[in-house]
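Re: the 326-residue chain
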Amino acid sequence: MRFWYKKVGLHWLLLPLSALFWLISQIRKALYQQGFLRSYRAPVPVIIVGNLTVGGNGKTPVVIWLVQQLQQQGLKVGVISRGYGSQSKIYPLLVNEHSDPILAGDEPVLIAKRTKVPVCISPNRQQAIELLLETQNIDVIISDDGLQHYKLQRDLEIVVIDGERQFGNGFLLPAGPLRELPTRLKQVDLIISNGKLCAYSDTLMQLKPQYAVNLKTGEKRAISDFIQGNAIAGIGNPTRFFTMLEQLGIVLKRTKAFQDHQAYSLAQLCKFDKNTPLFMTEKDAVKCVQFTQENWWAIPIEAQINITPQIQEFFAKLKNILSRAN
């Protein structure tokens, strides 16, 4: 919600609900930690990639980057996700690059497409892990989101922070965007800041566009070939995508921000000028393939993350965990 990132009076009215949210979440966390509520320990190491706030901080690019880093070390990786926005009637559900994003969710399909690793979605993350291990040979599980899902035990935790917006007004839900207080960061293994360093950062991530891909033909073109266009984005922070295009020298005639995980239809997008390129994120593009038009272009991005001593320490921890498991 926009007021989470602005100085307005509405959040003061919601503070009693935030206090209740904090109390319930703390009790629930303590019950899992003390063993009064049952949690699940997977037989292989589990890495959580999550955040403290609601909304898009750049978790999916980090998951893709982490998969690629682990693959370079010769590890077999599987990814689990709750599958936000998925409309499948069957869970757990194995996802691949050809899965219907309406059924499987946009981010799981994108991860499968970019990494070619097995992905499984389910609100019950234990079931997702068990299905992956039953059907695949896997050394490490990466959980896309789930930092606050204490029902799942984890070996390592990565938190992604939006370096610009950080924690908004600093309040917990619903008065602010926080799921947990920033003090939680003292307990995680790696903090990646997206776009801009902040006081909490262990390293900086920059999301770099590589080229534009035509959704109809698959043609790849340099972004510098484009002078102007229109743009849509159904992500947690659409403004970041629009600003990126403008910084690349594209004059945006019209932009349209949709809700995160928006399910698209041709009727929603056909109103844009057919003679002008329509740019969208990869996450949007996987949901538009069935009715794409010749002037629609996706902008793939790569996470460029600075290799710092903290990152080296993170991978050293994982190596020790794997050695103990074997």
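Residues 10-33 form the longest helix (24 residues).
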